[in-house]
Amino acid sequence: MRVLHLTTEFPPVIYGGLGTATGGLVKALAKAGVEVAVLLFGSIAGPAAGSGYGEPRPLAGGKGARRRRSGGVRIFEVSWFQRIDDIARIVANWQADILHLHSFWLWPIAQALRQRLEIPLVYTVHSLDRAEYEIGAGPPQCVGQWTQQEAVIFGVDRIISLTSSERELLKAYCPGVDAHIRVVGNGIEDIPDSIGSKRRDGDAPIVLFSGRFVDRKGIWELIDAIRIVLAEAPQVRFVLAGGHRDCTASQMESWLLPPGLCQHRSQIRFTGWLTSQQMAAWYRAADILVVPSWYEPFGMVVLEGMVHGLAVAASAVGGPAEILKDGETGLLFPPRDAPALAGAILRLANDPNFRKRIAAAGAQEVRETWLWSRIVEKMCSVYEEMIPS
To answer: Which of 104, 185, 199, 304 is the most exposed place for a label (fewest CB within 10 A)?
Structure first.
């Protein structure tokens, strides 16, 4: 079985959760013995050219692709301006059995490859743009983008939904596709040395937020909750990692921190955008992870917190609500509710024994259920449906 993944992000080209999830899946499939390759769009002509792995070689007459290997995986880097005949030749020469699409922007190319080469097509819905707009208060561009994403959902052979709640949204938004939907979540690699690496009880607890500073990630509710928490427990420290890729930590702070919290400035740290290694250092240092999203199709950040041994408090929506068991492996609270978020933080911050129990249970759960080795088994079952015996 040979599976070719079509994506706009693949390590080290990562702009968000898509690159992390796609990279993890492909690596895990290769480790499980599945022959996989990646058709990566945009890296030759786009901003990722030359980032971290040398300058790309020129294409001969525009008919080739830059080829490289990463962890045993063949990666074909092609320009957005590549002719479809040239791309089809690459795919045919590699002899793919299945195309796995990860970005709906590539639908015209994926559709053409499927028709020319008669290869079945799978699409992972990493996020629904209609839900981004209606539930997550996303920008108006989501409405226009939904038209293309809807065409993909109706046009592919199998649809991968990351959670059961996303499947229900798909059924509501696109009636008639339910028979083609399979629920397969994302996974994570184990980090064995993360267990038992947390700081001593006497240290002030650190609360970590990781993500983009946008409305649907609950960033403003978090700011309100910080004010409530520090009024009652001034020893708690907050680290807000991320923001916007092209903005510095000081820019994020000046935009987000209200005057009323300036007196607590020493307890609130903005990091700016971090590398994966820098982010891992904060996971190791922190005690509590908060995920106050309005809409969260899956939530890789939840798995990252669990595998690093943090106690996770998250909105009871989408992926977090399906990954966490409230009061056992994490705490859930209503979305868009700053007092409820503050209450969850205070409960974990003020009770170290409860916090440790939640963190330990979460660490055990993520290793029993959400490691990539387990997720790959489910994904391979979907692939096998599509290859004639």
So the answer is: 199
What is the average pLDDT across 319-328?
97
pTM of full prediction above 0.70: yes
> Contacts by 34-37 with C-beta closer than 8 Å and gap 24+?
34/1, 34/3, 34/376, 34/380, 34/383, 35/1, 35/2, 35/3, 36/2, 36/3, 36/4, 36/5, 36/73, 37/2, 37/3, 37/4, 37/5, 37/73, 37/74, 37/75, 37/76, 37/94, 37/96
- Position 387 scores a pLDDT of 85
210 pairs with which residues across the strands?
Answer: 241
The sheet carrying 331-333 orders its strands as 268-272, 237-243, 206-212, 288-291, 311-315, 331-333
CB contact at 8 A, 3 and 36: yes
The whole-angstrom separation of Cα 265 and Cα 336 is 24
Backbone dihedral angles phi then psi of residue 39, each to the nearest 5 degrees? -105, 105
Residues 192-369, CATH architecture:
3-Layer(aba) Sandwich (3.40)
Could you tell me how far CA 288 lies from the centroid of its own chain? 19
Residue 82 near residue 52 (C-beta atoms within 8 A): no
pLDDT tens digits, 36-90: 999 999 854 344 333 333 333 333 334 567 888 887 899 999 988 889 999 999 9
Spatial CB neighbours of 83, under 8 Å, sequence gap ≥ 6: 62, 63
Segment 162-191, tens digit of pLDDT: 999 999 999 999 999 999 999 999 999 998
Greater confidence (65 vs 356) lies with 356
Q: How confident is the model at residue 289 (pLDDT cuts 50, 70, 90)?
A: very high
Helix (H, G, I), strand (E, B) or coil at 288: strand
| CATH 3.40.50.2000 residue ranges for the chain | 2-187+371-386, 192-369
Report how far Cα 41 is from the mean position of its chain's Cα atoms: 19
* Residue range 2-187+371-386 in CATH 3.40.50.2000: yes
Look at residues 52, 70, 63 and name the one whose alpha carbon lies nearest to residue 5.
70
27 phi, psi to nearest 5 deg: -60, -40
| Tokens encoding 149 | 């994403």
